Amino acid sequence: MTFQFLAAAGEAAPQNSFGFLEAMEQGGFVAWFILGVMVIMSVGSFYILFTKLFEQRKVMNQYGAVRNQFWKQNSLKEGAAKLEKNSAWRQLVDDALMAEDQHSKMTDKLEAHDWMHGSLARSEDAINAKLASGLPFLATVGATAPFVGLLGTVIGIYRALINIGIAGSASIDKVAGPVGEALIMTAIGLLVAVPAVFAYNWLQSRNRRIAEMLNGFSTDLLANINSNGTVKPVTTTAAARPSTAKAASATKTTTTAGAKPATTNPGTTGAIKK
């Protein structure tokens, strides 16, 4: 008798129909469409994050060759040969050499400094624009993904109210599905927006750092061309030499100053006076 009771209770037990897939199925085409839009936003955000991070890292690593090899050459053309082709730094050098050649062909009186400064500024803007491509998508996702999720939330709550009106009572079985769909859409919208905002701010800060490096390099190029190759930035090796020389000079001075009292002989001085 007891076993019959338990069997009957097991057969009559309701199954769980309030999972994610069940909630999306109850939402119909609109719920799946909103979910698809947010999936596309998320995949696009991570794709832009990794591709732009790879580009930025490549530009920063190439800057080491600029500091260590480029300025050690006798001319800008020789230094350009040490840089990678199609790199941002090679582009700046090529544009500077081209601007110098174009200025020599001009018949109008235009200062070389102004012409070359404008040419290098245009080259920097082109590089910065390429690095910044794709970031507006991250900003758009970060700003709109919560509202796309909110749209799904509004539709889910609306469906819950319709079910309440049809049933005439706010029973849990009539409300749980649409409300669960609404909460899921809100959570997905936030999960898509937050990484996009973090990625946008991080990539922007790295782009500003690269822009500073490009600006400094173009200034060094301009100074080098206007001085006929005389002015060059101080490299790490060259910067270490003055400090070494100063330290050696200070050591020599200290040794000499310390040796002077030892060479003075009071006895000899007294003998001379006598």
From TrEMBL:
Subcellular location: Cell inner membrane; Membrane
Residues passing through the membrane, by range: 29-50, 137-162, 182-203
Region (Disordered): 236-274
InterPro entries the UniProt entry points to: ExbB/TolQ_transport, MotA_ExbB_proton_chnl
Keywords associated with the record: Cell inner membrane, Cell membrane, Membrane, Protein transport, Transmembrane, Transmembrane helix, Transport
Membrane-topology annotation of the record: Multi-pass membrane protein
The UniProt record lists the keyword Endoplasmic reticulum: no
Domain MotA/TolQ/ExbB proton channel: 102-213
Primary location recorded for the protein, binned into one broad class: membrane
Family: Belongs to the exbB/tolQ family.
Assembly and oligomerization: The accessory proteins ExbB and ExbD seem to form a complex with TonB.
Physiological role: Involved in the TonB-dependent energy-dependent transport of various receptor-bound substrates. Protects ExbD from proteolytic degradation and functionally stabilizes TonB.
Stated name of the protein: Biopolymer transport protein ExbB
Organism of origin: Qipengyuania profundimaris
